[in-house]
């Protein structure tokens, strides 16, 4: 007969079984004690053993020979303060030799486990004072071979030796390997060219460009003339500079005169110029027809990147000197009367320093 199927839980009934209610247990002193050895035979533990044979008697070991305890080496005699010399420590007493031989352990009674006879004893050993064995120190490690120090970046000049038993093939001719050298000077020269050349040519440009121009009223003994005729001449010269140098950032012009009757006309402009020397020669060539200039002369300015040209001509029937000075940031031209070429070049440098101011930083 098959077992009955489990009962299905009713709607709302918990699927977990309900634990039985706990049984009330009273305190232990009210409970009945239980004997754990009830029904166990505890008559005795000495049970006869007929299966195992009796054990043989214990074998007695032989009594070891009497050995004297070592009391250490004898103390050396005290050295007296007399003139007699010490003759050394006394000789140790002679060790007595025991000529008796070991005859083995005594015979044991016959039993189920006989003892095998001992091996033949060796030669008699001398019995004497026992000396404690000195501990042996471990051998010192071998020092590594001393390798000579080599300078950093250099290899050993000794060629590698072939392995033992190696033979060169037939027709082989050893060729010395040329050592590859390093050229630090070539690297330094390359760095100097890559960094020094741009710095050498770039410093004048950074020192002269950009610049601004302002016409001062007084320059040494020169005074700016502000009458209508001089003002109109200055505006006309500024227009010509703007027309000829259309990349100029700023233009300037002015007419100066001294109390002694010397007249100086200066004009120019600011802006970046890549080749100042060519621009100076082009400016002198442009003014040659107007002032009937002769052969230009080069003037040393003492400033790297600044070039100056001067030429002698005439204007309104009077002899004049025309000088132009060009650098990487500006151009300045002056027309001087009643002055020599050297004085004109020097005065142009003075006017230029007061009019053109480089904008550094």
Describe it for me?
- By secondary structure, the chain is an alpha+beta fold.
- It has a domain at 211-358: Protein Transport Mog1p, Chain A.
- The protein contains 4 helices and 10 strands; from the N terminus they run H-E-E-E-H-E-E-H-E-E-E-E-H-E.
- It has helices at residues 184-208, 228-244, 276-291, 341-355; strands at residues 211-213, 218-219, 222-224, 250-257, 263-270, 297-299, 307-315, 318-326, 330-337, 356-358.
- The strands form 2 sheets. An 8-stranded antiparallel beta sheet has the order 2-3-4-5-9-8-7-6, sandwiched between helices. The protein has a two-stranded antiparallel sheet with strand order 1-10.
- The protein is elongated, with a radius of gyration of 64 Å.
- The two termini are 114 Å apart.
- The mean pLDDT is 77.
Layout of secondary structure:
Elements: H1 184-208, E1 211-213, E2 218-219, E3 222-224, H2 228-244, E4 250-257, E5 263-270, H3 276-291, E6 297-299, E7 307-315, E8 318-326, E9 330-337, H4 341-355, E10 356-358
Keyphrases for this structure?
361 residues; Protein Transport Mog1p, Chain A; 4 helices; 10 strands
């Amino acid at each position: 007969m098959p077992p009955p199927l489990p009962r299905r839980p009713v709607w709302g009934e918990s699927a977990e079984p309900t634990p039985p209610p706990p049984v009330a247990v009273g305190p232990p002193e009210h409970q009945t004690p239980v004997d754990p050895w009830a029904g166990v035979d505890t008559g005795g533990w000495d049970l006869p053993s007929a299966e195992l044979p009796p054990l043989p008697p214990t074998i007695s070991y032989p009594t070891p020979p009497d050995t004297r305890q070592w009391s250490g080496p004898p103390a050396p005699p005290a050295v007296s303060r007399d003139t007699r010399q010490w003759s050394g420590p006394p000789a140790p007493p002679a060790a007595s030799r025991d000529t008796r031989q070991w005859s083995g352990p005594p015979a044991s009674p016959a039993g189920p486990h006989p003892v095998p006879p001992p091996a033949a004893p060796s030669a008699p050993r001398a019995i004497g004072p026992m000396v404690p064995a000195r501990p042996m120190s471990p051998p010192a490690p071998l020092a590594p071979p001393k390798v000579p120090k080599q300078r950093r970046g250099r290899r050993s000049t000794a060629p590698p030796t072939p392995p033992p038993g190696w033979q060169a093939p037939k027709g082989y001719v050893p060729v010395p390997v040329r050592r590859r050298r390093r050229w630090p000077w070539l690297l330094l020269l390359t760095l100097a060219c890559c960094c020094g050349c741009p710095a050498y040519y770039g410093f004048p440009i950074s020192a002269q460009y950009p610049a601004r121009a302002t016409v001062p009223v007084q320059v040494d003994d020169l005074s700016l003339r502000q009458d209508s005729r001089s003002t109109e001449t200055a505006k006309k010269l500024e227009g010509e500079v703007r027309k000829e140098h259309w990349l100029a950032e700023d233009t300037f012009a002015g007419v100066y005169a001294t109390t002694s009757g010397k007249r100086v006309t200066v004009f120019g402009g600011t802006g970046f110029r890549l080749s100042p020397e060519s621009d100076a020669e082009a400016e002198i060539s442009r003014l040659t027809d107007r002032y009937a200039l002769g052969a230009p002369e080069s003037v040393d300015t003492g400033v790297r990147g600044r070039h100056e040209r001067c030429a002698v001509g005439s204007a309104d029937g009077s002899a004049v000197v025309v000088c132009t000075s060009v650098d990487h940031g500006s151009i300045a031209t002056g027309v001087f009367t009643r002055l020599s070429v050297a004085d004109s070049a020097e005065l142009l440098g003075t006017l230029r320093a007061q009019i053109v101011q480089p904008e550094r930083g």
